[in-house]
Amino acid sequence: MAVEIPFIRDFETDYGSLVEVSPSIRRVVARNPGLFTFKGTGTYIVGRGQVAVIDPGPDLVEHVEALKNALRGETVSHILVTHTHIDHSPAAKALKAATGAPTLGFGPHGGERGGDKVEEGGDHDFRPDHALADGDVVSGRGWTFTALHTPGHTSNHLCYALKEEAALFSGDHVMGWSTTVISPPDGDMRAYMASLDKLRGRSERRFIPTHGAPIPEPGRYVEALIAHRREREGEILACLRTGPATIPEMVKVIYAQVDPRLHGAAARSVFAHIRHMVEDGRVKAEGPPALATLYRLP
């Protein structure tokens, strides 16, 4: 029986408006909907008076102006970035110029320029003013964040645990509307699975992803994501039991019911699984692992 992930796709969007998520958390959604961004990037404002901003979003004039309007009368003390895809970090530059607040994140983008464009692409210009490591604490008036390094989607991905609300801002590591794209070489399935395992058993009552609605039962949800990835590995092995195959050949079988526009991203995800499985010795590659390489069972 296929694993059922309890996706949450009911999400009202009023672009540019300031929406209260909780007494200390507000959100402004950018008008950048798409196959990989759902309804758009949600930029979060945490606190009152002296606030932190999480994932400033894409470099869209409309969105930056909406953020400035939302922040009028308040002081931004920190600009936190979960990772450096162009739907998450580029607006940090304009927001820093407008507020004087420093930027914080794990580090610059880890992916290479060029190559296959998957998802929204990397922001190679972002450099945090302050680099955060796993377990680092950032605090302000009425809020305390602990940074959690959760590589996999990107090597520099961070989640932020908000102590006062028992909530975790999960960026693109855990999203309620979809599974996460893992695209090598910067995307790494082994790291992603370890990062999912890291979130098992945490005490947060809800996860708040950058795209879409909050996830109310995060423990159950993370377990479903892990089971789904294990199931995908099983499907890859099932394909290879009928004989050697390339990744595009496997995608046609595994993702037969999926929108063909997503098959490119699906191929990258299968590639991430295959790389992991080759490393573990569960799959053999007839040459260096790549999309066109022929794979077989050992």
Number of domains: 2
Total count of strands: 14
CATH topology-level fold name of the largest domain: Metallo-beta-lactamase, Chain A
The largest β sheet comes out as:
7 strands, mixed
Determine the N-to-C terminus distance: 26 Å
Residues in β-strands, percent: 15-25%
CATH architecture of the largest domain: 4-Layer Sandwich
Tally of individual helices: 6
* Low-confidence runs of at least 5 consecutive residues: none
CATH class categorisation of the largest domain: Alpha Beta
Look at the structure and name the CATH superfamily of the largest domain.
Ribonuclease Z/Hydroxyacylglutathione hydrolase-like
Rg result: 19 Å
Instruction: Assign the structural class, choosing from mainly alpha, mainly beta, alpha/beta, alpha+beta, or little secondary structure.
Output: alpha/beta
Order of neighbouring strands in the sheet with most strands: 1-2-3-4-5-6-7
Structure summary:
The protein is of the alpha/beta class and 298 residues long. 27% of the residues lie in helices and 20% in strands. The mean pLDDT is 95.
Provide structural commentary.
This protein is an alpha/beta fold and 298 residues long. The protein folds into two domains: 19-225, Metallo-beta-lactamase, Chain A (4-Layer Sandwich), CATH 3.60.15; 228-296, Winged helix-like DNA-binding domain superfamily/Winged helix DNA-binding domain (Arc Repressor Mutant, subunit A), CATH 1.10.10. 27% of the residues lie in helices and 20% in strands. The protein has six helices and 14 strands. It has helices spanning 61-70, 92-99, 189-199, 218-241, 247-254, 263-280; strands spanning 19-22, 25-29, 42-46, 50-54, 75-80, 103-105, 130-131, 137-140, 143-149, 158-162, 167-171, 206-209, 284-285, 295-296. A seven-stranded mixed β-sheet has the order 1-2-3-4-5-6-7, with helices on one face. A five-stranded mixed β-sheet has the order 8-9-10-11-12, with no helix packed on it. A two-stranded antiparallel sheet has the order 13-14. β4, α1 (61-70) and β5 form a beta-alpha-beta unit. The chain is elongated, with a radius of gyration of 19 Å. The model has no long low-confidence stretch (mean pLDDT 95).
